[in-house]
Specification:
- By secondary structure, the chain is α/β, with parallel strands linked by helices.
- Helix content is about 30%, strand content about 35%.
- It has 13 helices and 35 strands.
- The strands form 7 sheets. Strands 21-22-25-26-27-28-29-35 form an 8-stranded parallel barrel, surrounded by 6 helices. A 5-stranded antiparallel sheet has the order 5-6-7-8-9.
- Helix 7 (about 360-375) links the parallel strand 26 (about 345-350) and strand 27.
């Protein structure tokens, strides 16, 4: 009698344990279902329809009937610039007028630094981020239709013209254009379809969230409709510049110049004081700004696009660009300064940057521009002439930067820099023209501003006892260069190779050479602005010029296209 009792007790206890374990598993499953970072697949066969293409390899997943799209798919279809930061678990979307920041553990989204609530955060599935489709509809101005029962989502580009049609005789939707292709479903009489294309007597159509092919015979064409618009992304209106841009940099090393000692340059419509710079690796923006200068500039009719530089420090730049949080910190400070000093724009001057940071620099500019546009501010960026230097040229993605900003300033000078091993022009005319043509391959002419130098270099070539020639240089502004030529009784002549006035002197065993920046060279540069229909000129820098130069620039810009 004892043994059966033991078995009975054992079976009873076992049953209780099994039930408790089952309840624990159920409770854990429910808990995980609602945990922000956990993803439950509704169906592994979910299908995304993007215009006339289908994706069904995990690109689309459902959670509680809500479709989520993988960030990799977004990048490969309609936004190659979407940015995922795996370290900070942050997704950043930039459009023409928006910067959207989403986090994996937060329901609050930042849109142009303003909070917006989501139903679910960004989700991670096996390390890959997925984002809910509903907010994407508004961000990208897409038309979205969700079919949760069929595990399908349809995304169409707003404004896209589509041919509508109706089935007049029951027909079969197939996987390809021909009877040999697999059947998908029957389409009864009266079924509405959208036609994307025609292939050998077959239409490629969308019907009830399915893509396929039907024969032309049972299809009656109706009207052509535009996919309904989602939102208007064209809120930014670029501030008006009267005529061509006549922009000049105001160099500020420590203190902004006393405006009472500045003769207002005639014809200039934009001044750019070099006020802001990257101070450290923590994202602190150094500030040399002066409100009195802004008030003076505005009283003269000038817009003020203050310059922000990376301090030409590649390591500090790398630390900032690689962090989404530090990029945002820098941008927020610049926005604050822009409001505080009543600026009209910003001029970005990033030089000496690691090649590995090329894409992150574009990301920084894309994150900055919409926020400045929202405040009615113009965004411009300086780039060098194309060369093979990694840190001084190759790191610029000129095409992407040109798409992001309002204007690109081509710094068409320092062909021969201060420590150049060979004497030569700061900016020979053929070199400048080649630089313009190279940039126009990637930046539209209406965005391209030609940077012109108001300085030159006096070169000294000296031969030592071994016969080796050493080269050194001194920087001269226009007046100093002209004075040196006159002092030495020289008569400059046009140098055919540079297109500039050139003078040379033999003295004390040295050869001195100078390629002049003067009225002639400035006129030649302005002729290139006219020839290529550029947006204007940017001069480095105010104070290096002869007074007559401003009149020449103003007169010639009025004549340009």
């Amino acid at each position: 009698m004892a043994e059966p009792q033991l078995n009975k007790t054992f079976n009873y206890k076992t049953s209780i344990i099994i039930v408790l374990l089952a309840l624990a598993v159920l409770a854990l499953s429910l808990l995980l279902w609602y945990m922000p970072g956990f993803f439950t697949y509704q169906d592994e066969n979910a299908v995304l329809i993007w215009n006339d293409k289908a994706f069904a390899n995990g690109e689309l997943l459902f959670k509680q009937n809500e479709p989520y799209l993988s960030v990799n798919t977004i990048k490969s279809t309609f936004d190659p610039n979407i940015h995922w930061d795996p370290e900070e678990k942050q997704l950043i979307i930039t459009t023409a007028d928006k910067v959207v920041r989403m986090h994996t553990e937060k329901l609050t989204v930042s849109v142009n630094n303003k909070p917006l609530q989501l139903e679910f955060p960004v989700l991670l599935v096996q390390g890959e981020p997925y984002v809910q489709l509903k907010p994407l509809k508004k961000i990208y101005n897409l038309n979205l239709a969700v079919c949760p029962k069929e595990n399908r989502a349809v995304l169409l580009t707003s404004g896209k013209p589509l041919q509508k049609a109706v089935i007049t005789k029951e027909t079969i939707l197939r996987t390809g254009p021909g009877l040999r292709h697999q059947r998908l479903t029957k389409l009864p009489i009266g079924t509405e379809v959208t036609i994307f294309s025609e292939v050998n007597g077959w239409y490629h159509v969308l019907s009830n969230g399915q893509l396929g092919y039907v024969q032309e015979d049972p299809v009656n064409l109706r009207n052509i409709e535009l996919v309904p618009q989602g939102i208007d992304n064209s809120s930014y209106i670029k501030p008006k510049i009267q005529g061509k841009i006549n922009f000049t940099w105001e160099q500020v090393s420590k203190v902004t110049p006393d405006t009472s000692r500045i003769t207002p340059p005639p014809g200039v419509n934009v001044v750019s004081p070099t006020w802001f710079y990257l101070k450290d690796s923590e994202g602190t923006v150094g500030n040399r700004a002066d409100g009195a200068y802004v008030r003076w500039a505005h009283s003269k009719g000038y817009q003020v696009w203050a310059l922000f530089s990376n301090d030409f420090n590649p390591e500090k730049t790398h630390n900032i660009l690689r962090s989404a949080a530090l990029r945002q910190k820098v941008i927020n400070q610049l926005l604050m300064f822009a409001e505080l000093y009543e600026l009209n724009g910003i001029n970005l001057d990033f030089e000496n940057v690691y090649l590995e940071d090329k894409d992150l620099l574009v990301q920084f500019v894309r994150e900055l521009t919409p926020l400045f546009h929202e405040q009615g501010l113009t965004v411009s960026m300086d780039v060098t002439v194309k060369s093979n230097s990694a840190n001084w040229s190759l790191f610029y993605n000129r095409k992407a930067l040109g798409e992001a900003v309002d204007y690109i300033m081509l710094m068409a000078y320092d062909e021969h820099w201060s420590t150049s091993p060979k004497a030569g022009s700061v900016a020979s005319l053929p070199w400048v023209e080649k630089g313009i043509r190279g940039l126009l391959e990637e930046v539209p002419r209406e965005k391209l501003v030609l940077g012109i130098p108001f300085y030159t270099r006096l070169w000294e070539e000296k031969r030592d006892d071994t016969g080796k020639i050493t080269v050194s240089s001194r920087i001269f502004n226009m007046d100093t260069a002209k004075g040196w030529v006159k002092q030495n009784g020289l008569t400059p002549k046009i140098d055919a190779s540079s297109g500039q006035n050139f003078a040379q002197l033999q003295q004390n065993g040295s050869t001195f050479k100078i390629w002049l920046e003067d009225e002639h060279s400035v006129r030649q540069r302005l002729a290139l602005v006219d020839k290529y229909g550029l947006a204007g000129v940017a001069s480095w820098r105010r104070g290096y010029e002869e007074p007559r130069i401003w009149e020449i620039i103003a007169e010639n810009l009025k004549k340009t296209r």
